[in-house]
Amino acid sequence: MTPSHSALPAYARLPLRVDVALLQAALQAIPDAAWSAHFNTDYYRGDWSGVALLSPAGAHDPLAAAHGGDSTDTHATPWHSARWQQVLAGIAMRISSARLLRLGAGAHISEHCDPDLSDPQGDVRLHIPIRSHPAVEFLLEGQVIPMAVGECWFLDLARPHRVDNRSEQARIHLVIDARRNDWLRAQISAGLATTPAAQIARSTLAFNRFRQRVHADTLLAGQLNRLENAREFAERAVQLGAQLDLHFAIDDVRSAMRQGRRAWSEQWTV
Questions:
Q1: Which one of 2, 30, 150, 233 is separated from 13 by 20 to 30 angstroms, measured CA to CA?
Q2: How are beta strands 143-144 and 199-200 bridged, if at all?
Q3: How far is Cα 208 from Cα 73, in angstroms, rounded to an integer?
């Protein structure tokens, strides 16, 4: 949890707690027809959909964030009921957007960054899980953030992150974008002492075991050494890993290449 250029940590569980029963009752009131597919279609596989509660004025899509703009205008949708208003009233920040984001069973959001959240004077993103499962992994810089239902988390999503839902149920979060302020900084400072540590993802552990196998097996290394294209290299690594019953994702390979490109290239040219 080292500070970033924004002087905020990578993540923190805030001491704020929400009424889970209230959240789930509000969620039950939203019909299936209200959910729409996320507009970033290149980023995910499976069901990633949402319901806007508060949208920035003039946004190109109801699920879009404010992108750090200075406008204070927001548009309340028909789903922004008194129950959601009660929850959001506990966030003492200028809220620019509030969305429900659902990741369906077996769905995957590819690793990406949200550069609009990098402005040290701009918006940050808060996550409040409403429905989740232990098999859901939210990875920030390759580590699983252990968010539990009813908690409120600050996440620096200008950093690389991805989500895997390996469960058989949908994961639903209330996602809030709001302008950083002293209240947030105080909440982060108060919450850091009890923020649980991030965990190593199962796919990362599998990938690390695969790397050990490759280092010890010249024939296996040779199959990768012949590949000069980075994407082909990552895809082939995933295939070879699966043959060894070591299951990881292309994002695990890419993350390793970014974090240790020099050490990695000592073994293979990518």
A1: 30
A2: antiparallel
A3: 47
pLDDT, tens digit, 9 for 90 and up, residues 196-226: 999 988 888 899 999 999 999 999 999 998 8
What b/e string do you get for 104-127 counting C-beta neighbours within 10 Å, with b at 16 or more? bbebbbbbeebebbbbeebbbbbb
Nearest Cα to Cα of residue 147 among 112, 183, 105, 195: 195
Q: How confident is the model at residue 4 (pLDDT cuts 50, 70, 90)?
A: very low
Q: In DSSP terms, which residues pair with 14 in a beta bridge?
A: 152
SS3 223: helix
| Fold (CATH) for 11-200 | Jelly Rolls (2.60.120)
What 3-state DSSP class applies to 228? coil
Distance (Å, whole) CA 143 – CA 141: 6
Cα separation of 203 and 140, whole Å? 13
- Smallest CA-to-CA distance from 199 within 137, 253, 133 is with 137
pLDDT tens per residue, range 87-105: 999 999 999 999 999 999 9
User: Domain spans of the chain?
Assistant: 11-200, 202-265
pLDDT of residue 184: 97
Decide if 52 contacts 101 (C-beta within 8 A): no
DSSP letter for each residue of 11-30: EEEEEEE--HHHHHHHHHTS
Question: Torsion angle of alpha carbons 258, 65, 129, 254, nearest 10°?
Answer: -10
| Locus of tokens 């199962």 | 202
Could you tell me if 102 and 48 are in contact, meaning their C-beta atoms sit under 8 angstroms apart?
yes
The answer to whether residues 267 and 230 touch, using CB atoms and an 8 Å cutoff, is no
